[in-house]
Amino acid sequence: MDNQFEPIPREKFVFVQQDANLHDQKLETKNRSYFFDAMLRFKKNKSSVVAAYILLFLALFAVLSPLISPYDVREIDKRYVNAPPYVEALAEKGWSLFNGAVTHDSQNDASMDYWKGIAEETGHDPVLGILSKQVKQVKSRGKMVENATYKIRTNKYFEIGLVYMVFSYEDFEKIQAWQDRTGLQVIYPYVDPKDIQGISNNPNIWYQVKDNKGTAVKDENGAFIPAYCTAAAAEGAPYHSIRIAGDNGSYIYSARKSGAVQCRVEYYNYYQYVNGHAPQYYFGTNEKGQDLFCAIGMGARFSLVFAILVSVIRFVLGTIYGAVEGYYGGAVDMVMERISDVLSGIPFIVATTLFQLHLAQKVGTVPSFLFAYIATGWIGMAALVRKQFYRFKGQEYVLASRTLGASDWRLMFRHIFPNSLGTIITSCAMMIPGVIGSETSLTYLGIVNLSEFVGTSIGELMSLGQRSMTTSPHAMFWPALFFSLLMISFNLFGNGLRDAFNPTTRGED
Amino acid sequence: MLKYTVQRILLMLMTLLIITCMCFVLVRMLPPVQLPAEDPHTKVILARREAMGYNKPYLVQFGIFLRDIFTRWDWGVSDKLYFGQDVAAIFMDKLPATMIVNIYSILLSIPIGISLGIWAALKKNTIIDHLISTLTMVVISVPSFVYAFLIQYFLSYKWGVFPFLMNSGRNYLDWSMFVSMMPPVLSLSFGVIAGFTRTTRAELTEVLTSEFMLLARTKGLTKGQATVRHALKNCMVVVLPMIFGEFIGIMSGSLIIESIFAVPGVGSLYINSINGRDYNMFMLLTVFYTAVGLSAGIVVDISYGLIDPRIRMGSRK
């Protein structure tokens, strides 16, 4: 037995086709993948591209607005509840949407004087404009008197004017130091209620009045006559900061109040002293006093992250379940279909409620909300995957692969699944607006309350806005606008994706 | 067909029973509502709870629950919202309002939705079609409570066309009642109209391009004749079941719209029973909503088979 072969040296091997020409033409076009192709088709669809940009903008807004806004969702100022949007720079350019205006009906001459008083004393004129003026002849004490009523627009931020506040001696000193540094007047001269007919609940009256309703006494030029207190004995603490115009040094700026001082404080400037910035709510505030600009962003952040999380989990569960159903068919399919029948029959609101009632105490609101979404939500996905598997599992390439000995798992996820990926991805994208929509409805109805976790939610903002709709429509307008834009652009974007991935279904909307 | 129908209905009843059982057990597992000590109803309710087997195993309780329903139509008494009153009676009292609001909304939506859909399909790829399709897309995406806000703010508050809330009272055929129902009806209709438009357009454009339409034209029918007699008929195979489905669905109403406009219907009752933890009420309404949802699905499937003999889903396997 001689099995020993001589090793053949490398040099003796020669290519058979050493000089032969290959007559195949080289491919001149680039190789295009399925996804690249889909991208190209997507870009042709104008409305979807626009929707994609709007979506990007909304997502950026959600990320950035809580960072830009000087406020926090939980930061609430009781005096600026239901405040309309106010941005000083835009208001000066004449953008009436952002001038912080509210409308007041039936203002008589006395109340017009009141607004004028605030404007003269603080320099911040609350009256933006007079919308209409009605003059009626009214009989009063046997004489005909002209009685005018006005409809005016006022700036809600300035109309607060002055408020009574009580400070400790240190705080009083600190405010004075701040006044000296910035030149903004916070503390205004004190007015003794005795000098203004005993009115003690209206710090905005600094002029002489003739009755306890606050009707002003005017001098011969029609100007107010100041009623500031000059009794040095009543002074609470020494005042050495800036004084208002017309003060010859005799006005006192605080009144004694057992261990503290009471002052008249201009709230707009006091706010700057406390917070370091002027009160400006870009989108206004709602009934609770939350800054809408920040709150919408916070709510949207939660909605987006939550919806994507839900979609991913549903995608995984639904794919596995649907793949097993569709691939094995027969009795397995029958049993699994019955299970999903039962689960899909449960109304979503019932599932959410039961999960909230049972689990919210133990694992928290958000996880139990998430469970509710996952518990029944994956069925749509499973049905879709099952259909795709029925479509592909009998095809020749699957049979060929099986003949070659591929395992079930490999057939399912290496051969069939990639072919149905386009459809599945599209329905995933379409699922996101659905999740956001139902999440918003449930928070709107108050069945799920997210305020402990994120501070707020778009649904809660809208239900608060709905309640105060007549007095401050902006509190509904901004969240509704944001939410509608989000839903519209998500749906348009999803449609574009679907058309791009499945060109055969184009135009079915 | 009959066999298939019976099969589907039996299957549905079984599904309903399983879901009811699941929800029932989950609800009974919650601690029962604390009753006010001095109220004279408390004794009655406690006695009824004893009779309903609150201290027995859950499945026995479920048996008692079913027995009471089948023998006496007794769904228990409300222990929170309508203290001591019969739950089923309150439910029957609330149902008409929901149904009437929703019937009006469907009646308004069908003609508008379908004609818009037909118009868009006939003018396919023109500016009208694009306008209608885009608007449909936009309207479908925006949820109904945004329409409710717009209608309530502009029509009711600013211009005063409609009252702010729906009238209370029970005479639903009154004119002023009809006017006060319009805001919820309109808010509900937007989405339904858009749904009808979208389906009609999609179906009709497909039918219009099929070959028998060409045949109909070649044999001498005018475009109108061909569309009405051949295309529309075929398109109705899809649209009619949708209408049936909506008609069943109207009973469930809209939870949000009802609470915004104070419609005295089952939707707001449901929300109140959830937020107020009125478990018997919640149980009844859960069964109701589940049944409505399941039967809507069945009606759609069966009506497909009835309308179009080619689609007999039972003969699939």
Could you give the topology of this structure?
The complex is a heterodimer of chains A (509) and B (317).
Chain A: H1 34-44, H2 46-68, H3 88-92, E1 101-107, H4 109-122, E2 127-140, E3 143-155, E4 162-167, H5 169-182, E5 187-188, E6 255-257, E7 260-266, H6 267-275, H7 292-328, H8 330-345, H9 348-363, H10 365-392, H11 396-403, H12 408-445, H13 458-467, H14 474-501
Antiparallel strand pairs in A: 1-3, 2-3, 4-7, 5-7, 6-7
Chain B: H1 2-29, H2 40-51, H3 58-72, H4 87-122, H5 127-141, H6 144-158, H7 175-208, H8 211-218, H9 223-249, H10 255-260, H11 266-275, H12 279-307
Task: Describe the fold and architecture.
The complex is a heterodimer of chains A (509) and B (317). Chain A has 509 residues and is an alpha+beta fold. Chain A has helices at 34-44, 46-68, 88-92, 109-122, 169-182, 267-275, 292-328, 330-345, 348-363, 365-392, 396-403, 408-445, 458-467, 474-501, and strands at 101-107, 127-140, 143-155, 162-167, 187-188, 255-257, 260-266. In chain A, the strands form 2 sheets. In chain A, strands 4, 5, 6 and 7 form a 4-stranded antiparallel beta sheet that branches. In chain A, strands 1-3-2 form a 3-stranded antiparallel beta sheet, with helices on one face. In chain A, helix 2 packs across helix 7 (292-328), helix 7 runs parallel beside helix 10 (365-392) and helix 7 runs parallel beside helix 14 (474-501). Chain B is mainly α and 317 residues long. Chain B has a domain at 95-276: MetI-like fold (Orthogonal Bundle). The radius of gyration of chain B is 24 Å and the shape is flat. Chains A and B meet through helix 8, helix 9, helix 12, helix 13 and helix 14 of A and helix 1, helix 5, helix 6, helix 7 and helix 10 of B.
Please provide a brief summary of the model.
Chain A is an alpha+beta fold and 509 residues long. Helix content of chain A is 50%, strand content 10%.
